[in-house]
Input
Amino acid sequence: MTEWLGALEGYYGPGLGHEARLSLMEWAGPKGFNVFAYAPKDDPFHRNQWRDPYPDDTMREFEELVAKGRETGVQFCFTISPGLDWGAGDEDALVGKLRSITEIGCEVFGVLWDDVPPGGDELGESHARGTAAAVDAIGGARWWTVCTDYALSRPTPYLSAFCKTLPDEVAVSWTGRAVTPLTITGKEARVLGDALGRKLVLWENFPVNDALMKDVLHLGPYPERSSDLVEATQGVFLNTMQYPIASRVGLACGARFWTDPASDREQVWREVVAEFPGLESLARACRSWASDPGPAPELLESAAVAPQDKRLRTYLEAGCRDGLDPALAEEVEPWLAAWECEAQAMLMALDILERGYRSAARGIGGAMLWTNARRQTAQVFGIRNAIYPVTEQSGEFTVTRPEAAAFGENLTDILCRRALRDE
Output
């Protein structure tokens, strides 16, 4: 059984909101999750003002989340990120902040050191000592951490010193060899874990879509991970998007892998999408990710043989809103609007392919619709422009891999170019 199967609110951007967190925990229990980690980067009391106490109303919300965790079996994990201005003597402030959370019954904690200024072995020891001070002072809880060096394939001086100093009972996260690696194998986890003397927990940056990925809605299958990864690690935290209902597609696909690693990821995705009435049309248009930035294969295949093949026309004419839950539709409205704009351009392209230009007006009208579609910020039917944090270690440095830049044509571009230029 996976020790940690967590949903993680750990992105940059607006937080999920209290009611959404409660609802997410309620939903996550039957999916196999056993922890929900609160770690929103934009919460000032979590990160920038970590020493300051939380307001009373927020503490009452945390107490409700702790109670919801007992009710659902999805334990609430409170986390804190003190690394931006950590220094000697800060252990007391850290312990004091965490003790205030124990008073409301929380039993799972994370001390997170990610995305702060890097350093060497002395910084690693300092961060680990701070975590150890909290463990020693509070005790009796489950503990989890992530280091400043978290996206790598071999230890750094910082990471080695951190893990040597850290208490054994604290789980250590790692994102794979990149912040968003295209693939991860059990061998990679074992090699790094053996070098550090402990099994790792994967911090999975999926379905998250913050920073330069923000225009891409991740509603596709779980990324390619080898089945031996489950046995080679202590588990996973799946980082959500800022859209709590839409995130459930990626979370559910990820949970299926971690509870049944031999399952077929494509079949699982189709089964999961079917659990959300009305979502299939948008999900097919929003299945792209760093490893596969192009359009859905079945849509691309149909477009290639249009107009003889009518599947694409039927799909586009059916629309993307019918039967969709209103709360979910509100979350993803930018992508629904983009879907409709792109569909209008593609239907015009299909008309041209079926009937020929017939008039200059038809060709000009098609070009205008295509141009309007290309102005959309929200990306559907493939990725035109996004940057994913796909990195690798190179000596002492972390560098960006070529796969990080997802620049290309989406399905609209492919079909309109064919209709307006080649026919």
